[in-house]
Amino acid sequence: MSTSTSATDLKAIVKEGYDAIAPKYHSWAAPRLTQKRTEYIERLGKSLPKGSKVLELGCGAGLPATQQLVDQGFEVLGVDISSSQLALAKEHVPRAQFMQGDMTAIEFEKGSFNAVMAFYSLFHLPRDEHGPMLKKMVDWLKPGGWVLFNLHTDEKDHMRDDWMGVKMFSTGLGIEGNRQMLVEYGAGLIDVEDVIDKEFVGRFEEDFHWICAKKSF
Fold first, then answer.
1. Distance between CA 186 and CA 77 in Å, rounded?
2. Is residue 75 within 8 Å of residue 98, measured between CB atoms?
3. In angstroms, rounded to a whole number, what is the distance separating the alpha carbons of residues 179 and 204?
4. Percent of the chain with pLDDT over 90
5. Which pTM does this prediction carry?
6. Is-contact 140 113, C-beta < 8 A?
7. What are the phi and psi torsion angles at 37 (to 5°)?
8. What is residue 53's DSSP assignment?
9. pLDDT (0 to 100) of residue 34
10. Please, are residues 134 and 7 in contact by the beta-carbon 8 Å criterion?
11. Rounded CA gap, 38 and 68, in Å?
């Protein structure tokens, strides 16, 4: 980790930030469909049968992604570190199940899910937790299951003092660092799709590193 702030303190910044702005952030984000994420979820719906179990890490307030997963016919468990975000998610998507906590601290049996998705969430973890978290995600997949996530493209820490009125942290390993992480911690993944592409959110756009891969049988 390149910052002197502890992992616990960094996660507290993320949790407290989202807790403080949950309704405000939802009002801003929900009407602005994230096009690239939407495309990946649609593809997932064509790759897995209805009733498949999907774990969404960093589900936020549940809209639009959690609802889209439920509408695809999936059995969805959403996880988020922010209790305020989850309170909104439970109202917005009553057909999904939810769990509050640090994604690195939760445990599931190996082979529990047909897909594990972590869009706009892994980069809120300290850098040295990205790889071990990926390993857990792969372990939780059933053979033939899918993992989908996105990451920052730059190798740096982002500590914003005024992000929608709160302090917020995210970080990246850089494109080659992300790829090296896949090699080191993504054992068993095949059909890896590794794309650098923009996400359009309303009039805003930002480059992200998008990863989609299948767990071998």
1. 22
2. no
3. 26
4. 89
5. 0.96
6. yes
7. -60, -40
8. E
9. 83
10. no
11. 8
